Amino acid sequence: MELFFAIVMLACLHSFVLPDGQGDALFALRSSLNASSDQLADWNQNQVSPCTWSQIACDDKGNVIMVSLSSMGFSGTLTPRIGVLKNVNTFSLQGNGITGKIPKEIGNLPSLTMLDLENNRLSGEIPASLGNLKKLQSLFLSRNNLTGTIPQSLSGLPNLMNLQLGSNGLTGQVPEQLFQVPKYNFTGNRLNCGLNLSHRCESDNGGEVDRRIPFGQLRRFSWRELQLATDNFSEKNVLGQGGFGKVYKGVLNDGIKVAVKRLTDYESPGGDAAFQREVEMISVAVHRNLLRLIGFCTTPTERLLVYPYMQNLSVAYRLRELKTGEAVLNWQTRKRVALGTARGLEYLHEHCNPKIIHRDVKAANVLLDEDFEAVVGDFGLAKLVDVKKTNVTTQVRGTMGHIAPEYLSTGKSSEKTDVFGYGIMLLEIVTGQRAIDFSRLEEEDDVLLLDHVKKLQREKRLDAIVDRNLNKNYEMDEVEMMIQVALLCTQASPEDRPAMSEVVRMLEGEGLAERWEEWQHVEVNRRQEYDRLQRRFDWGEDSIFNQDAIELSGGR
What we know:
Layout: H1 2-15, H2 22-32, E1 56-58, E2 64-68, E3 90-92, E4 114-116, E5 123-124, E6 138-140, E7 145-148, E8 162-164, E9 169-173, E10 183-185, E11 190-192, E12 219-220, H3 223-229, E13 238-242, E14 245-251, E15 257-263, H4 271-283, E16 295-298, E17 303-308, H5 315-320, H6 331-350, E18 366-368, E19 374-376, H7 405-410, H8 415-431, H9 449-458, H10 476-489, H11 500-507, H12 512-536, H13 547-553
Parallel strand pairs: 2-3, 3-4, 4-6, 5-7, 6-8, 7-9, 8-10, 9-11, 12-16
Antiparallel strand pairs: 1-2, 13-14, 14-15, 15-17, 16-17, 18-19
Helix pairs in contact: 6-8, 6-11, 8-10, 10-12
């Protein structure tokens, strides 16, 4: 009997998987923050996995990837044990009363993309170890009691997009390379910005950051706030409507203009907590060509997202819905929009972890800020709705004419479906036309803009492609380049389409000639095979084949 029990115990020891320290580290954090008994009450030290705990998100392997403890009233310190959370990409504790130093062990988190410790009482120096965070995109340390100099190591962060160090007690020289970060703020310190550069400490790249809604800080709105802001969701405030719901113009009680998206398919699996986690994950995607998420609102029956109001509306509006007296998008602006949109999508596909697929890239979903810079909106929304509640024929998200053929036929999307949609959007930018236009039936068979452009391109009639509103104020070689990139992006096979990083390079003048020559060779062979098949059959009125069936079975 003793031997039996020994064997059983040995088997149990072999089958038991020891925790990797994530749960212990998080529980140590809870203790060091002086959390009260009703704060983080579901953080159970006896559980092996912390993935069911509130304010925590994990990937499908059980690794903690997000810790979100903003504005919860903590007054303790940060334990060095958080350095074991190797897979965390978002660590947010802004808006508490945390004291003590920033642990140097945070520099041991290789996956970290956002660190937000803003508006606490942290003291001491900024650890030089933060320079080890090569994936870091956003660093928020403003409004603390930090002293000492800015570590030179921060200059070596290749992906840093937003650096907020304002309102501390920092001294010394600002590393010159940090002025190349797209968004920065050093105000409220005693810093030396270098000879003739003192004004650069008093601004943040021209003021892109709104002081009343700090960049990167997600806010939870009440239903009443948004109801008042939009005049009870009045139809007169509707900015647009799409597959995910209506968008309303709103004005918050502090005068800030916002756009409020009221989601239609709001029943996300897992309810409110799951929705909030997904929203927080999407909010981490910070790029100058992506629409910033200000906050959200949830009720038992509603899901709403709040964005900054874009006063120049969408590219689609500027192409086709202008009111009398409004200026047409000139060619230089269209080129800038094309490149900015490509960079935003490249960031979603290749720099987000996990990557984000937009699923509905089109001119109507690319907004224009006050400087007419492209801002991609509605990215990640497909993650926030329950596609299981819809049937097979309607679960494909997107707009006809923009949807890649493989997505339309199988319902499976990838980053290459976004590339296809982007290619169609390029054609919209060049032509000013819609992706589908039934008015063309009067003159030709090409209802789809893609087919129409291909035909004119084969006939070398590029002048007939360009938007007439441009009044010939464009460079034909640049039009040709953009058409070529669009046709490469809209190839029937997703494997043949370029990645968005390649698209960016081609728009910048690198590698297009080689890809285009290859595409022409394939296209010529495809046309020759099509013509050969056409000659092989008799398509007269007495044909035994059902013409309608043949048309429906062809490529869409």
